[in-house]
Amino acid sequence: MTTPDIGAIAEALMGARRDCKALDPADWQAAVPDMEAAYAVQAAVADAQGWFAGGAPRAWKSGGPSRSQVLTHAPLPPAGVRMSPADYGDIRFFAPLIEIEVALRLARAVSAETAAALAAAADRADEAGRAELADRIADELVDAMCVSIEVVDSRWADPARATAPMKLADLQSHGALALGAWVPFERRDWSAQRCEVTIGSAAPVARTGTHPLGSPTWLLPVWLKHATRSGAAVPGGTVVTTGAWAGMLPAKAGDEVTAVFEGIGSARLRL
Asked: What is the model's pTM?
């Protein structure tokens, strides 16, 4: 098996960002064979760009399409993480898509030892037990939540032809993240949670109870284990987005996007 050239694909992804020229997936199909290589590419790009030179990442995206599938994670470049109302007129996106989410904020630092113990407990639990454990983790470790809007934007010219590891290497196609006002975290009946997103002049899109994992807290033990895999703690105040409620919706430059989650709040951005 050919050893992945992590440096080469990291340089190509940085070039795509710098030159605003998306990459042809066909040229890189074998470059990122698995998730391990994808995370190595993430780290190489972050190091070269100096995104986290001042310490650990302070914002992450995490999630997956269902509870039965492997969850993936990506640290977010700080320049694109902004408070609502956020203006992204200074960023050129390739083909932006919009995801509306609930973001969670850690109340305190979480050590690698604590994260490993929580992940092991989640692995031993059945589905109902794991859901309750995730809620208890949130009760103890999460102090706030907010409405968030992620701009999803791929550096692959045709994302449909990019493999899952290729997308993961590209920060799971992250473009930018707008965060609404923080409110105290509380357990909610997420199956009844209503949300709505309006993009430009398009009709609002409303959803109820459509979080792909059933609850934004479900991913906490897996994400914490991943975020501490180097042995360093995740700092208090770290933010994690938790999965899209309305899929990925198209947007274009100049559009204003507003997301509202009943009982939680709202967020707004302009592309």
From this structure: 0.96
